[in-house]
Amino acid sequence: MKKSWLGIGAALIVLAFLVGFWPQYRQLTASRETAATLQTQLDAAEARLRLGDVLGHLLRLSDAVHMKNYGEAATLSSTYFDAVRQEASRASSDNSAVLRSILGSRDQVTAAIAGTETGLDVTLREQERQLRRALGYPTGDAS
Asked: 111 lies in which domain range?
């Protein structure tokens, strides 16, 4: 008789543990899933913010070129292309392709700022369009 009471007592202890454990386990699992989703969203937001910062560098460079302040434009060009290179190494594959194509025009932009090549405005506007497209901003073109 004692053995049966002992068995019932042990079963009740196990049952009480499971009743307390299961809701906590489900809550922990749901919290981990939520944290993973939020981390993914945070990573995407940070990538978008960094890409927006690159666009900001480009706009400052474009302003300096427009004002014909080529000394400042040369400095801003270096900062801009350094930011592009840094972001290209971290960006998603879609944005990385855009950033690498922009990096390919570094020599052309540098030469244009130095005054040995024309078409700087067109090049900078195209880079702005590419960055705006990568950010999902309107670009004013049909694509």
From this structure: 43-135
